[in-house]
Design brief:
19% of the residues lie in helices and 29% in strands. It is an alpha+beta fold. Bound molecules: ligand LGMQ2O6W, calcium ion and magnesium ion.
Amino acid sequence: MNTPAPGSAAARLGSTGNDIEHLPYGSYTHGDNGPRLGVRLGDHVLEVSAVLALLPSGELSDAARTAVDAPSLDALLAQNRTVWDEVRAGLQKVLGDPTHGEAVAAAAIPLADVTMGMPFTVADYVDFYGNEFHARNVGRIFRPTQEPLTPNWKHLPIGYHGRAGTIVPSGTDFPRPQGIRLDPDGVPTFGPSRRLDIEAEVGFVLGSPVPSGRVPLTEADNHIFGLTLTNDWSARDIQSFEYVPLGPNLGKSFCTTISPWITPLAALSEARVAPPERDTPLSDYLDDTNAAPWSFDLQIEILLNGEVVSVAPFAETYWTAAQMLAHMTINGAGLRAGDFFAGGTISGRERFQRGSFLEICWGGSEPMTLKDGSEFTFLRDGDEVCMRATAPGPNGSTIALGECTGRVLPAV
Ligand SMILES: O=C(O)/C=C/C(=O)CC(=O)CC(=O)O
Ligand SMILES: [Ca+2]
Ligand SMILES: [Mg+2]
């Protein structure tokens, strides 16, 4: 990797996974100050507007200066790729410059001293179903007498609209959801979920609004600002009773956790890989035969109470984020700054590459044995799930995505 100039903030503060090639954004509160838009360098957060104020006057556009003088990413998302790139280049310039190293390091705040909030205001939220291994597994478990893959699956990225208002930043504990599910005798009964689960996903943050419709595959880079690890907590018993025929609703709308750090797309330039080979001809708007590679080499580790229980390979996801975005807008629907979509539960070929306990433990019929010898199927009160991932970064660096953690509290 490029060694940062001695004395620069990058040299003083940067660490593997969070060096000058990464620079994820978040919204932090420090004592009575904040929330403010921050950028992460090593185990510190820096106020973006303060860092960019160190650029020589005239080097930053008014649009960029105004957008970062803000509590979160919202104003920056409302700008466009040119401004996004300008801000990142400005941060890299200041943080790599030894002249500013001492001042920036003195103003840096240890992560242990801040509270991270939602990095942006979620506008609309869509959750896709883009991974073929997951879709086949869930099909077999939920609909054992039918073809696992529905007839539409290879023709379009299936998705449903989720609940934007219950997306929370990592570290937010939540009570076990309650709802109507079948009791052991098959009678619909109200009560706490008995099949509380996770879904390991990558979420994509959108910006550069389009008032109405159509973001072609070639424009995806101009609208996908960045990405974040996402856990779409799912109450399988509530979900499996309610979802016919309109899809998931309360079984998934109680809480969705994201990492508070949004990794900019530019930091993942080296992690981009081709998606799995397509075996079904696609409509022109989805046909990515000759498109730039739009998948990512990301291995997502899933930890249950600190124990790694699965490693989910994102690159196995069949539909790409560019295709999902093209699909979301092909009917004329525009996009707003802060729109967010998750790509679907990530699973691979092997059992311990699956991104949900539903799949790993096959609907509860195949418990897994934890390190302490106990058997596990679905989440218990007090369980904590953490997701983390690394990817190859620019110039030989490593990108460590921000962690996505949550804990289940007893039902209220
Ligand atoms: O009913 C089904 O086949 C599956 C439902 C889901 O798993 C929904 C979901 O959240 C999609 C995903 O994350 O892949
Ligand atoms: Ca999901
Ligand atoms: Mg959810």
